[in-house]
Amino acid sequence: MEPISDHLQEHLRILFVGYNPSIRSGETGHHYANPNNRFYRILHQAGLTPRLYKPQEDQDLLELGYGFTNIVARPSLTAAEITPEEYREGRLILKGKIQKYRPRVVCFVGKGVYEQYSGRRGMQWGSQQKPLVEGVVEYVCPSSSGLVRMKLEEMVAIYRGIKSFIGMEMEKE
């Protein structure tokens, strides 16, 4: 199965970084395409998108200044299938993308993604101290996978915190 395309451009407001594409994403060519993945619902409920997007519209989020990539390009059933070698290579490739495109915020969709990228452990949700690429906010959110048992409302609250770094006013609840 082929990797899916990144959606990247310079001056992104947010670059969302996942572990790797799901099998469903690999089949469809769209990010967060598994029907059990809550990614687009979380973004909408957090006030980061004006409406609920579908995975087939992932490229349209570039118009909002949102891009997509993964630390590992190979689709798999779970992140547990990713090898240490794939993470080592992916870490270097990802850092190069961040240096090249310089998004305002890099949102790591899962603590494990950030741990693999940064080599750090024990971080809290939200923005991280001492980013690996100076001038870029590193922001850690829960994975939106349906396998994650965190309540949707808790996840939405964490994602909502990104707004303060990209210049969005908090919308009335």
Description:
It holds the Pfam family UDG. The chain has 173 residues and is α/β, with parallel strands linked by helices. The protein has one domain: Uracil-DNA glycosylase-like domain (Uracil-DNA Glycosylase, subunit E). The protein has helices spanning 23-28, 39-45, 84-101, 111-118, 152-160, 163-166, and strands at 14-18, 66-70, 105-109, 126-127, 137-141. The chain has a five-stranded mixed beta sheet with strand order 2-1-3-5-4, with helices on both faces. The model is unreliable at 169-173 (pLDDT under 50).
CATH homologous superfamily heading: Uracil-DNA glycosylase-like domain
CATH topology: Uracil-DNA Glycosylase, subunit E
**Which CATH first-tier class would you pick?**
Alpha Beta
Number of helical stretches of at least 4 residues: 6
Order of helices and strands: EHHEHEHEEHH
Helix coverage percent of residues?
A: 25-40%
> Which band does the percent of strand residues land in?
5-15%
Biggest β-sheet strands, sense, barrel: 5 strands, mixed
Distance between the termini: 42 Å
Q: Determine the mean pLDDT.
A: 93
- Widest sheet: strand ordering: 2-1-3-5-4
Shape summary: globular
Please compute the radius of gyration using only Cα atoms.
15 Å
